[in-house]
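Q: Hi! First time doing this. I have a protein sequence and I read that you can turn it into a structure. Is that right? Here it is:
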Amino acid sequence: MTDERKDSPQDSLLLMLRTLKLPSFAACYEEVAAQGERQGWTFSRFLHHLCELEAADRQERRIARLLKQSALPPDKTLATLNTKKLPAKVARMLPSLCEGDFLGRAENILAFGLPGRGKTHLVCGIGHELVRRGHRVLFIPTYRLVQRLLIAKRELTLERELQRLDRFEAVILDDIGYVQQDRDEMEVLFTFLAQRYERRSVIITSNLVFSQWDRIFKDAMTTAAAIDRLVHHSMIIEMTGPSIRGEQAKSKTGAKAQKTSEQNPRATP
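A: Yes, that's right. Below is the predicted 3D structure, encoded as structure tokens:
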């Protein structure tokens, strides 16, 4: 005679909720049911509250996945960006850029400025805000993207790689001006930009103005074609002012000198 133990209704419910991939339902339904009984909720209100919890938790998990996929530097957010140092025009543009409406129009953001002006931090901060709003974003240094595309080209999978990149609503190409490409490298970069034209957004940082982009694309005609595609639907950000990194270095040096002086007063003339 076998002893068959049947699952309780509670165990059965938990199993079904997990099967239906409703983890927040499974985790919270007992607590919410007790709350509902105390406050005299109707069944529909009880169910609605559970649905709200599940939806919020699912959105949180989705954003966590998107953030991991984005490869955005975790420390370069708007919270860590000193917005008081931004040029006035850029500061005015920032809130609307973070809303992400430009993605639906397949517009680009082109951030120019000398090294140390905060271009990368700014576009990464925008990237983090876009992810928080549920958009798929990828941050990648330009040299790394070029190498990725070259490998795909050699393995005859370039089209497939471009399709993977096309899943991202915005690709942030950092430091395009530092890439001194040979012809093969230039060609895959141009192919990538041309493929996204009027379909998906790119966000680019560059220490080179357009008149110097022949260093990137080598060929005058290719340079003109690349610039034309990027500028056609774009917002241009100019990061002017002193070097932020330079100011931070001076501040650290000054603080260190002051600490040394306090610790060793005789060293002060």
